[in-house]
Amino acid sequence: MQEVRIYNSIVHMFGTTLNVYAYIVDGMLIDSGPHRLQDGIVDFCLHYRPDKIVHTHFHEDHTGNTAYLINKLQVPAYIHPDSLDLCRHKGDIPFYRLAFWGNRRGFKAEPLPDVIENEHSRFEVIHTPGHTTDHVVFLDREQGRLFSGDLFLHPKTRVVRRRENIPLLMKSLRKLLQEQFDTVYCAHGGEIKQGYRSLEQKLSHLEELQDQVRSLSQRGQDIKAIVKRIFPQTPTIAYFSLGEFSSYNLVRSLIEDNDTEGI
Ligand SMILES: [Fe+2]
Question: How far is the CA of 78 from the centre of ligand 1 (A)?
């Protein structure tokens, strides 16, 4: 079995910390990390020499070094077809995210195929929208391992981005749980040995939360009141992201209850 090479670093800012992971398996770099970690990621890549770069989604902490690496390593990059145009240009990114991650230089990528054949491995590319519309995961069915990008992140979701669609993310989790796998490699949580179980826990937590939100909404409570009741403490990230990350977004998305793509 091809060993998974793991890059990990921690970004500190605004009194909070965030782990970042990038992975190389069988010559495939999965996400290029934020620009702010360029030196470490470039060293990692110069050591293990990937022959391609694949992306789970377009966010700048997953694509921040792709332009540089394409040029430096002379390798192709792939991303979901929805993001090909967007990634050709420099990121249009709010200030707090620029300060946290750095920007993304534009790059030219190819559309991800349905299956990636490496020298010794084969990965299914599974579309898992919700966090973003272009989000995919990479599944090695033979070895039972899954590279999950930002699909998992945490078993108990408390804050989400403004544009995340949580019912759609739940649908993606249900689709993925039809598959068999053990280890999950998360872009911010690292290697999770009981990954299948963790994804199940995340889904059941969101289902419980959805029931709770629906029942409070049916009793006439508005979004703000529901947030106050379920999440009485505001997480730090909600303040410095000026509402981009919040429990309000999570509750609103659950109330909207729209699990169709393309919104
Ligand atoms: Fe993301």
Answer: 16
Phi-psi region at 133: left, alpha or beta (left = phi > 0; alpha = psi -120 to 50): alpha
Domains of the chain, CATH where assigned: 4-256 (3.60.15.10)
Cα distance between residue 56 and residue 221, in whole Å: 37
Measured CA to CA, the distance from residue 112 to residue 147 in angstroms comes to: 15
* Distance from Cα 137 to the centre of ligand 1, integer Å: 12
- Ligand 1 geometric centre to CA of 161 (Å): 9
Alpha carbon of 220 to ligand 1 centroid (Å)? 33
**Beta-strand relationship, 28-30 and 52-54:** parallel
pLDDT per residue as tens digits for the range 25-47: 999 999 999 999 999 999 999 99
- 12 CA to middle of ligand 1, Å? 17
Give the model's confidence band at 263: pLDDT under 50 very low, under 70 low, under 90 confident, else very high: very low
Query: Ligand 1 centre from 80 Cα, in Å?
Result: 14
Residue 191 near residue 183 (C-beta atoms within 8 A):
yes
In one-letter notation, the amino acid at residue 150 is D
CA of 151 from ligand 1 middle (Å) equals 8
Residue 77 CB-half CA count within 13 A: 29
